[in-house]
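Field log, afternoon session.

UNIT: design team B
ACTIVITY: writing a sequence onto a fixed backbone
BACKBONE:
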């Protein structure tokens, strides 16, 4: 099976994967990309959020066969250490993470939102970010998304 992952074609040996295998386990166990987290296994928490053709999807319930021929992007490709994504910078500025477990999925959901809406309202952020954070950092998440949106629009990054 072939996968287009983080901008690169990846051939997956048929002996290592089953087309029904959840994308999450392909990413973590076969490709060793462990930034995408397992949270609930039923698409409720969002810790496993990745992009498929630019849309935020829950990898724990997405079978590998459903992404064949599509562009898959994980947290590992959101930014680079020398050039982080605006959301990653805003996350630090607003001190969003506490335990940090849900953050890769949260960042991917926020990136999908900002890719289609560079000026989201609070209601639009709340509607798009359905990920769960046990630490309850939702007010800081919302502010970080607004800060990143301003930066992406060319405005001041500080919130």
């Amino acid at each position: 099976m072939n996968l287009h992952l983080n901008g690169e074609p990846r051939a997956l040996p048929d002996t290592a994967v089953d087309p029904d295998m959840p994308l999450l386990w392909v990413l973590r166990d076969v490709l060793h990309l462990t930034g995408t987290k397992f949270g609930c296994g039923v698409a409720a928490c969002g810790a496993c959020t990745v992009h498929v053709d630019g849309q935020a999807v829950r990898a724990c319930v997405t079978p590998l066969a459903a992404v064949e021929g599509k562009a898959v992007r994980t947290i590992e490709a959101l930014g680079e250490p020398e050039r982080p994504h605006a959301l990653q910078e805003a996350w630090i500025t607003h001190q969003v993470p506490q335990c940090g477990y849900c953050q890769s999925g949260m960042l991917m959901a926020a990136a999908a939102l900002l890719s289609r809406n560079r000026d989201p309202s609070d209601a639009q952020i709340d509607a798009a970010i359905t990920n769960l954070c046990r630490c309850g950092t939702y007010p800081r998440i919302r502010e970080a998304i607004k800060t990143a949106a301003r930066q992406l629009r060319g405005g001041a990054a500080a919130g």
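LOG NOTE: Residues 138-153 form the longest helix (16 residues).
NEXT ACTIVITY: expression trials, pending approval
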